[in-house]
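Quick log. Single chain, no ligands specified.
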Amino acid sequence: MSAATVGLMAGMALGFAAFFGGFWAFLLVAFLGLVGLIIGRMLQGDLELSDFTRSRNRHDRAT
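-> predicted structure:
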């Protein structure tokens, strides 16, 4: 399935949620879609959990 088709389906799902459920349903569908995207990317191997838990402090900098 092409990226354009996936984008079209996601946009239609968000549009239906906004039309029939209102703003909060739109936000819920968008949030759950984002969670699904992250989990799908992790299962594919494109993302790792350490990408989200990495520390911001870098101790390897020269002082």
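The chain has a mean pLDDT of 82.
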